[in-house]
Amino acid sequence: MLEFGLLGPVEVHDDGVPIAIGAAKLRGLLAALLLKPNRTVPTETLIERVWAERPPLRAVATLQNYVLRLRQALGGHGAVIRTAVGGYLIAITAEQLDLSRFELLTAEAERATDPAETSRLLAEALALWRGPALMGITSEPLLREEGARMEEMRLNAVERRIDAELTLGRHLALVPELRALTAEHPWREQFWRQLMVALNRSGRRAEALATYRQVSQLLSEELGLDPGPELREQHAAILTGGN
C-alpha cells in the first residue's frame, strides 16, 4: 500500500519501501495534491503552488509534464493521480496520508470524555510528526499558507494533550517539557499558563508567580502588550491559593 507523508519531509512509501520523488518542485506538486485528497485541484492553483510568482512560459504544458513524471515515479501506482475537469486529483484513503490520520485522531480526541483517552489519542496523533511540515519543498505559497496552518494544528494538539495530562495530575513530569515549549514558542500564552499551573501544583508557587512576571515582562518589552485574560486569571487564582 502506498503511504504519503506531509508531517515532516514530503515522502512516499510503498509497503514501507521509500519511493524517490526527485526534484523539489515535483514534491511540491505532490504536496499540493495531497493537501486536497480526492478533490480536484485546478490547474491554475497547481501552477501557483509549484512556481509561485514565476511560472514557466508554457506553464500548462510544463505542469502536464510534471504530472507525467510524478506518475512515473509512483510506478505501478501512478493511476492514483487522475486527470479531472479543469485540473488533477489524487485518489487515496485517509489511512494512506499521515495528515488525514492526524486529523482523524485529533477529532476523536475532541469527542473523548476521559482525559486519559484524550491524552492517548493526541499523543498518537503527535507521534505522526517527523519534523516541520512540508520539509523538502521550495514552494513559498505552500510553506507560508499550508505549512503554517499545519504547524498551528500541531501546537493546538500539544496544548490539548498537556491540558489532559494536567487533569490527570502529571504536573511534575510536564514542567521540563513546558519550559522547553515556552522557550521555543515565547508568544504562545497557553504554554506559559500551563507552566504556571504545573509549577503551582508541584508545590512551586513562587516559581509559578515568577513565571507570570517573566512572561509579562517579555510581552511588554517585545510586543507592547499585557498578558491575555487566561494568563491573568491563572495568576489571580495562584495568588488566592487556587490551582
Automatic annotation (TrEMBL):
Q: Which UniProt keywords apply?
A: DNA-binding, Transcription, Transcription regulation
Q: Which Pfam families match?
A: BTAD, Trans_reg_C
Residue ranges forming the DNA-binding region read 1-92
Q: Which residues form the OmpR/PhoB-type domain?
A: 1-92
Superkingdom of this protein's organism: Bacteria
| PANTHER family documented for this protein | TRANSCRIPTIONAL REGULATOR REDD, TRANSCRIPTIONAL REGULATOR REDD-RELATED
Q: Specify whether Lipid biosynthesis is a keyword of the entry.
A: no
State the similarity comment.
Answer: Belongs to the AfsR/DnrI/RedD regulatory family.
SUPFAM superfamilies assigned: C-terminal effector domain of the bipartite response regulators, TPR-like
Its name, as the record gives it, is DNA-binding transcriptional activator of the SARP family
Q: Which InterPro entries match?
A: AfsR-DnrI-RedD_regulator (IPR051677), BTAD (IPR005158), OmpR/PhoB-type_DNA-bd (IPR001867), Sig_transdc_resp-reg_C-effctor (IPR016032), TPR-like_helical_dom_sf (IPR011990), WH-like_DNA-bd_sf (IPR036388)
Q: Name one GO biological process term.
A: regulation of DNA-templated transcription
Lineage at the top is: Bacteria, Bacillati, Actinomycetota, Actinomycetes, Pseudonocardiales
Q: Which GO terms describe its molecular function?
A: DNA binding
Signal peptide span per the entry?
none
